[in-house]
Structures are given as C-alpha cells and as structure tokens.
Amino acid sequence: MGSNLFVNYGEAVAMILFAIGFSNLLLQKNLIKKIIGLNIMDSAVYLFLAEKGYITGRLAPIVTNGVQSSEAYINPIPAGLVLTGIVVSVSVTALMLSLTIRLYRRYQTLDLDEISMKLKKEGQ
Amino acid sequence: MAFYQNIPFFSIFLAMFSGTVSSVLPRKAARVLNTIVISLIMVASVFLTAILYEQGGSYTFMMGHFPAPWGNEIRAGALEAGMASFFCLIMLLSMLGGRKKLDEEVEETKHNLYYVLVNLLLSSLLAMVYTNDLFTAYVFVEINTIAACGLIMIRQIGRTIEAAVRYMILSLLGSGLFLVGLVILYDLTGHLLMSNIQESVKLIVANGEYTIPLLVTISLMSAGLAIKSALFPFHAWLPDAYGYSTVSSAALLSSLVSKGYIFLLIKIYYRVIGIDFIRSNKLVNVLFIFGLAGMIFGSLSAIKENDIRRMIAYSSVAQIGYIYMGIGLGTQDAMIASIYHILMHGATKSLLFISAIGLTDVSGCSRQFIQITGSGYRNKIAGVGFTVGALSMVGFPCFSGFISKLLFAQAALNNTAGKMLPTLIVLGISTILNAIYFMKTVLRIYTPVKDSEYPTWHIKDQKLYTVVIIAFVLCNLLLGLTSVFIEDWISRGLLSFG
Questions:
Q1: Contact yes or no for B176/A107 (Cβ under 8 A)
Q2: CB-CB: which of A22, A78, A84 is closest to B139?
C-alpha cells in the first residue's frame, strides 16, 4: 500500500490539495480566502484527472506523422472533462466574486460572521 | 425511432432556448413565454409518461448520433417522464401564485432575468432527471446551483445576498465532493455513461477487487448530494434562503431544487452502482441516522421559530429527513415511500409558501405570529390553502401526507434489519412535533381579532391567486386519493431503473 502511494505521488498530491481547498472553503471567515479555497479544490480535481489520463511514453492525442494506432496516444477524455470542469469553476467563481462585491459594498467587510451580526442588528 | 422519443431532448432544449430568448423580450412577453413553455413541456411529459407507463421499460436517445461508449445519451422511463411532468406542474403553479409578489418585490429591470433563471432551472432539472451520463449530470448540477443562487438573490436585500453566499458555499462543497467521487469512479471503470459504469461495477464487485475505492466513491457522491439537498446538519443556509427570497423562489427551491438532487442520488444508486451493492454495505445506515436526526431537529427548530416563512423552511429540513430515512431503510418499499414523499412534499410545501404569503399580505407584510392572528378571516382562500397544507403535512387522511406516512410505516414494519423500532418511534415523535407547530399556526390564523387594523382581501380581487391555491389543493387531494395508482407507477419505474 505504501509503495503504491509513492508510485502514484501525483494523485496523492492532488488529494492533499483537495483537502486543503475543501477545508479553506469550509473554515475560512474571509470570503476572498474562501473563493481561493474553492479554486484550489477544483484545480486539485483537474490535477487528479490529468494525472490519471496520462500514460508514460505516449503522445498527446493529436495525429502526428500519420500514426493512427490508439496505442500511440493518451486518452483524450480526461482532458475534455478538465476543460468542461474549468468552464464550470470559472463561472461559479465569477458568481461568488460578484456576490462578495455586493456584500462588501453594503457592509464594508469580507467577514461572513460579521455580516451576519450586522444583519441581526439591522433586524430586517 | 418513434416521434415521442424526441420529447425529453425537446423539453430540455425548449427550456434553454426560451431562457435565451426571454433575455431580449419585453417583460410581459417574457412572462407569457415562460408560462407557455412550462405548460407545453408539462403536456408533452404527461403524454410521454402515459406512453411509457403503458409500454413499460425505457429507451435511450443518442445525442448527436454517436453510438454508446462515445456519445452522450438521454434515457427515459415512466418514472423520469412522470417526475419531469410533476416538476413542470409545481413550477407552473408556483410561478403563477407568486407573480403579484414578484412584481412588488423585484425591480422591474430584473424581471426578464428572473424568467431566464427559471427557464435555466427547469432545463437543468429536466437534464438531471433524464441524463444517462454522469459528467453531464455534474454539469447540470452546477447549472442548477447557479440558477438557484440567482433566484435567491433576485430580491436585493442584505439577508438574501448573505443567504445566497451561504447557499453557494455549502453547494460548492457538495459539488466538489460529488465531482471527486465521479472522477474516482471514472478512474475505476473507464466509463461515463451510467449503463456502462454499472456493467463495470458488477465486474469489480464480482471479482472482489477495489471494494474500498468503490465505497469511497459512493460515500463521496452521497455526501455531496446530501449536502446540496440540505440534509440535517448541512441546512444552515436554508431558513434565510427560503424565508427572505421572493415567494416563487422559495417555493421552487424547496419543492424542486433539493428534490432534483435527491432524484439524481436515487438514480445513481439504481443505475450507476446497482442497488444490491448499496444495500449490502453499511453506507445507507449513515443516511438513515442523519435522516432520523433531521426529522426531529428540523421540527424542533420549526417549533422555536416566531416567523411563519422561516417555520415552513425549517419544516423542509424535517421532510428531507423523511426522504433520506426512506432511502436509508434500504428496501424497495421504503424507496417507493421516499419517492412518494418527494411528490407529496413538492406539492404541499409550495402550497404552504404560496398561501403563507397571502396571510402575511393581509397582516401588514409582517411574518410574526402576533400580526398574522385572524388573517384566515381576512384572506379566506389563503387561510384554506394553509390549512390544507398544514393538515397534509401532519398526515390527515385523504391528503397526500397521510399516505406517505403510511407507506413509511409499512416499509418500516417489513424491515428485517432492526430498523423497525427506531423508524416507528421517530415517525411518531416527528408527527406529534409537526402537529404542534402546524396546528398552532392554523389555530392562530383562525383566532378572531376585534377591530383589526388590517384590510380584508376578497376572492374577486385575486382571481389568479385563488385559482392557483385551488389547483394546489386539488393536486394534494389527487395525490392522496389515487395513491394506489401512483405507487404502481413508481414501482414500475423503479423496475425499469435497475
């Protein structure tokens, strides 16, 4: 088991990054730091996918020198998934940032707990 | 290929297309288009349900004419089509019922945007119901989250923006977990189409390899979707989001968005992993315990609440607990009960939200219990609607809530895994708690107040609202009275799932 961990060190790193991102998104008080956590978490998944899709010694899936055999190239699907995932995470990040801007303009702070306190005081 | 087989694809596409068009139309035209599109999709889905119910079985629809392992697929059976028609019906009624409030609460320039978001929500719900591809499901889960977030924050007050941020944070945690689960499953099986994954999973289970990674995958996906559908400890965003957004949004969020995720989870259990493997491991017990906890604590929070909208929101936490308890019981009967509960809760919770807004409108827009005293007399139709909803939630015979409690109790009695006693006890306690807070509210709205300072609204002043409330009440009665037929439909649908 331990030896597998060493061979697949890319995947292990991706999972550690995922945990870092996840806990940042969950535990940070500052909204911008939360969004950074979100991006670390998503990138970790893409790293994992890219690591899984790569086969040592093979080429990127673009036909070169007329070689048609599938043995010569790596699997293109993980790359496609990563691209789709990036589109999703970009749009989600943009939405989160726009919400953060609105909250900051209203309450002059990025701390979510402080915003909740101010809301309670307003009593609306 | 018969023509009716195109219906799922056309439904999804029509919803997306009308969303795009709505953004450039005048406000009223966008509203009319929205209503027409939802009704059209509903009629088509009912037609499809009828055909598939008669025929039995299911069919797959190739997207872009690429065959199975490469192309994307849609799959439709009786259960999916019926679920799609139900979602359209509830969405149509919620939009019509909340229309007046939407005009009052949301800036006029944002109305088009609202219809865009609703159409986007509908298309993503339909795609989640119909898709046969796990990664497509993930993409539409995210689209659904974005649309739902927009629906919460369209009413621009501090509370809704804060609720939207909290909703987004928890939702993103959920979808992160779902995504990583999906990626590990893809890594294990090499497929993204649900039917192909199931074949590979069968091989893996038969060979006894990779059991732990498979378990990790299932738990990651279940946890992700449970967080997104506000299962008990993850419900922090829910009361504010349902309590302060405009009423159509609250109705849509509580009765459709969370149900879409639960339906996807059930679909993953049956179509991707295979229900036998799910039942044979201990994972469902975790969902069972969280479900039971949700049933009690959701109701307790609702009793403490002094604001009618937030009380209804907390009641949703309890009802979602019921659904997960049914999934956790791990038998076919219990799963049928859970799916019935999805329908029951969808129909009843939107009725409660829409009628509560009628009650608060005749109480100076205050939601505190003191102010709504006697409002059942000032707005009669809203009072009737709320009473029916409350009775259904408590489990009064004839209404749908009674049948779902009965189904849960029957499923618990037939359970051999030692879950019978806890289920029955918690079901009993939860029913009593439900009765406490709903009957308290009903008594309060029918307590006469002398010389009330608030106006009285008559039925002739609010014709559309009256029609919507009556339609909701009929829907509730229909679910309760034709339960034998609905059970049969659900069990047939589940058979073609496996």
A1: no
A2: A84
Count chain A–chain B contacts defined by CB atoms under 8 A.
84
| Cα Rg of chain A, angstroms | 21
Answer yes or no: are the C-beta atoms of A50 and A41 closer than 8 Å. Answer: no
Give B169's Cβ-side CA count (13 Å radius): 31
pLDDT at residue A124 tops 60? no
Any A CB within 8 A of B165 CB? yes
Nearest residue to B292 (alpha-carbon basis) of B255, B323, B269, B247: B323
Owning domain of residue B485 = 282-498
Q: Does B113 touch chain A (CB under 8 A)?
A: no
List pLDDT tens digits, range B396-418.
Answer: 888 889 999 999 999 999 887 78
Task: Check if the interface score ipTM surpasses 0.90.
Answer: yes
Beta carbons of A99 and B153 less than 8 Å apart: yes
A88/B149 CB distance under 8 A: no
How far, in Å, CA of B290 to CA of B132, rounded?
A: 29
Each domain of chain A, given as residue ranges in start order, spans 2-122
Residue B187 lies in a domain: no
**pLDDT class of B45 with cuts at 50, 70, 90:** very high
Question: What's the pLDDT tens digit per position in A1-11?
Answer: 567 778 888 88
DSSP secondary structure letters along B65-105: T--TTTSEEEEEEHHHHHHHHHHHHHHHHHHHHTHHHHHHH
- From chain A, pick out residues whose CB is under 8 angstroms from the CB of B223: none
H or E stretch covering B246: none
Chain A residues with CB inside 8 Å of B169's CB?
Answer: 25-26, 34
Chain B residues within 8 A of A22 when measuring between CB atoms: 173, 176-177
Residues of A in contact with B186 (CB under 8 A): 52, 78, 81
**Contacts A19 to B, Cβ<8 Å:** none
Distances (CA, A) of A58 to A61, A65, A93, A117, B213: 9, 14, 34, 57, 27
From the list A31, A41, A122, the residue facing B165 with the nearest CB is A31
Q: Which residues contact B104 (CB under 8 A, 6 or more apart)?
A: none
Structure tokens at B281: 């491991």
Q: Tell me how many domains chain B contains.
A: 1
**8 Å CB contact of B173 and A26:** yes
The answer to the question of residue B34 being in a domain is no
Distance from C-alpha of A90 to C-alpha of A109, rounded to nearest angstrom? 24
**Which positions ≥6 away from B298 have C-beta within 8 Å?**
B232, B235, B314, B315, B316, B317, B318, B319, B320, B321
The CATH class for the domain spanning A2-122 reads: mainly alpha
Whether B19 maps to a domain, the answer reads: no
Is residue B301 one of the residues assigned to a domain?
A: yes
